[in-house]
Amino acid sequence: MRYIGATETTLVAYLEPIAATTVSVLLLGQTIGATTSIEFLAVATGFTLVSRETMQRAVANFQAADAIETSVPENSDDWYDTI
Fold first, then answer.
1. For residue 11, which phi and psi values (nearest 5 degrees)?
2. Apex CA 17: angle with CA 44 and CA 10, to 5°?
3. Residue ranges of the domains in the chain?
4. What is the pLDDT of residue 24?
């Protein structure tokens, strides 16, 4: 929790009903009604609102890592030529 934070950690609780419903549909043959679909939309909206900063940081970190990866030459001999 030191690195992730309490808010992001509790987001797992939002996913529990979705996981339980998915399992009941796949294993027990239950059906999903209109009310359940609306509730899933509400959960997804809440999840997005709460985790948007975390998602923005993750995308920025991914883009930064991708930029670093593409800037390093594949051939190690070429890397010494750039110094």
1. -60, -25
2. 70
3. 6-81
4. 93
